[in-house]
Amino acid sequence: MPDRSDPEGAVAEAARKYSNWGRWGPDDVLGTVNFLDAAKRRTAAGLVRLGVSFSLAQRFDMDGPQRGWRRRTNPVHTMLDTGMEAARGDQGFPHGLGGADDVVSMPLQCSTQWDGLGHIFDHGRAWNGRDAAEVVTSAGDLVTGIEHMAAPVAGRGVLLDVGRVLGEEGELPDGFAVTAAHLEAAASAHGVAVGRGDIVCVRTGQLTRARREGWGDYAGGPAPGLSFTTAGWLHSSEIAAVATDTWGFEVRPNEFDHAFQPLHQVAIPHIGLLIGEMWDLDALAAHCAADGVHEFFLTAAPIPFTGAVGSPVNPVAVK
Q1: Domain 7-70+107-318 belongs to what architecture?
Q2: Per-residue pLDDT reduced to its tens digit, 104-160
Q3: Could you please report the per-residue DSSP string of 204-226?
Q4: Between vectors from CA 245 to CA 177 and to CA 107, what angle results, nearest 5°?
Q5: How does DSSP classify residue 268?
Q6: Beta-bridge partner residues of 102
Q7: What are the C-alpha distances in Å from 88 to residues 85, 92, 94, 304?
Q8: Residue spans of the chain under pLDDT 50
Q9: Which residues form a coiled coil (predicted)?
Q10: Where are the domains of the chain?
Q11: Is the alpha carbon torsion for 24, 26, 32, 34 positive or negative?
Q12: The predicted structure's pLDDT at residue 314
């Protein structure tokens, strides 16, 4: 680990070593999703053997994990029309037609979601070295809005069940820093290799624990997660995206004094990495453990909210 007392220096050094600025040209809006090309998708489609599918999304409802940090709340679902109005004939439709309609109000990153490339900056710089003030304004992300990710995020998914391989009863304790060596150990135990263009799903088991014991501080509190030292692995592996079953992707508390999410500060604006959080990997993990196959076809398109810096997603893994 770098010096615990110098998070700014460590971020600067990692940014220098692992920057992908300019790799796909000055106008790039996809970052590492560029690694996931048509050939990779064709190969990934061949992974479907059984036709069994798994949603990797948590439910979106008022019983979610959010506690109000930075005004993040759980979804509020309101009915606009119900069967009661239909039964009473109050809706004004002809020949007995009735219907229901509803609306949801929610922060875009309150449950299973992608962090877009406009979500995190480093010293006022956004992905590809752009001026953050010009990229994201009150009108939204004018350059790298999440809508650009709506089509390409479909390909080979790989599950690294670090909780099952290294944890106790399938769960890593809060504060456990998952290193590159841990990720490689899980891949070896599963008999799977991580490669260019993959969407890597890292299960720690924290969501399993939260379901059993209650949300507690799941949204923002101590958690297992990726070590800052994995920045090199995330860069050199050339994966398209990574997702975890935790609120913040990286280990919490963070590994530096007086720091907040330093791995985000390298991974998003410098590596250009698409990061998923609060994914529900439990059912998929159980199936992978049972049949010994930890690769699958995965589609995980964000909802294309124009100019958004993140989006809810319902990832679907097909084996």
Answers
A1: 3-Layer(bba) Sandwich (3.50)
A2: 999 999 999 999 999 999 999 999 999 999 999 999 999 999 999 999 999 999 999
A3: -SHHHHHHHH--TTTTTSSB-EE
A4: 120
A5: I
A6: 79
A7: 5, 10, 13, 37
A8: none
A9: none
A10: 7-70+107-318, 77-105
A11: negative
A12: 98
